[in-house]
Specification:
GO terms for molecular function: protein phosphatase regulator activity. It contains 16 helices and three strands. By secondary structure, the chain is mainly α. Strands 1-2-3 form a three-stranded antiparallel β-sheet. β1 and β2 form a beta hairpin. The longest helix is centred in the first third of the chain and has 20 residues.
Length: 270
């Protein structure tokens, strides 16, 4: 029964945490018994079971309970199969969503070598606009996961494609994550490539795209500031914040700091 498998998936994370805490007694139980079930249910015929399996996997990754070898040898191959060009449409949409969500939880090497090539392919998927939409909405997170060199070499050309996509929702998603993408690039790329691209979005024929671009204008401009002098930095949750100066900290040592936070692309997308 699908409901039984779904319920089982919901119990996997707390069981895994228990096994981790009791590892001397159960050294291999999670890797031998539970992890294979999670991987298998990612391809279950029932979509509710698959969804429960995906949620369980993300929790396990977030809690750092999955071994690097299992990620590279079991999880990534399944996701690459599900997101292949000839894969079923529903499976492909789910797989790209998981790839985007798990990118921030994996090592940069794993993301760049195993997942980034497929992500770049999916950005150009001409069959499903839903796939391109997910890629556009999570573009900033992928850039942050792989760093400046891979972003400028592989991702920026794909970002240009998505910013000129025929579907206005794609261009809107790009406008919303523009700050996060810009923050990952060098000042030269920011000035010579991203600035003209942003002007095209702020002049878009669709008012929803223009509105999203205007909302991202301030955050985008802030990426041109020198972080050491302006005090700007990106938090782990993707928000842009201002670090108070030493003088402000000394003068308000008895009061809580009032950091100014600007909403990031991920917050807008939510």
């Amino acid at each position: 029964e699908p409901t039984v498998r779904t319920e089982l998936m919901e119990q996997i994370p707390p069981i895994a945490i228990f096994l981790q805490e009791s590892r001397p007694k159960f050294p291999t139980a999670f890797f031998e018994y539970l992890m294979p079930i999670v991987v298998r249910y990612l391809t279950d015929v029932n979509n509710q079971v698959r969804k429960a399996g995906q949620e369980a996997l993300l929790i396990l990754l977030e809690q750092d309970l999955v071994a690097q070898s299992d990620i590279e040898n079991k999880v990534c191959p399944i996701l690459l199969d599900l997101s292949a060009p000839d894969s079923d449409d529903e499976y492909k949409v789910e797989a790209v969503n998981i790839i985007c969500k798990m990118a921030s939880m994996l090592s940069r090497t794993t993301v760049e070598h195993m997942l980034l090539p497929r992500f770049c392919e999916l950005c150009s998927d001409g069959k499903l606009f839903q796939v391109r939409k997910i890629c556009a909405a999570n573009f900033g997170d992928i850039c942050n996961a792989v760093g400046q060199e891979a972003t400028e070499r592989l991702l920026i050309p794909k970002f240009f494609e998505l910013c000129s996509d025929s579907v206005w929702g794609m261009r809107k998603a790009c406008a919303e994550c523009f700050m996060a993408v810009s923050y990952t690039t060098s000042p030269e790329v920011r000035r010579s490539k991203l600035s003209p691209l942003f002007i095209s979005l702020i002049s878009d024929t669709c008012r929803w795209v223009r509105q999203a671009a205007f909302q991202s204008l301030g955050p985008f401009i802030s990426t041109f500031a020198n972080p050491s002098s302006a005090g700007l930095y990106i938090r782990e949750d993707g928000t842009l914040s201002i670090r108070p100066s030493a003088q402000d900290v000394n003068s308000n040592s008895c009061q809580p700091s009032n950091n100014i936070t600007v909403m990031s692309s991920s917050d807008n997308a939510a």
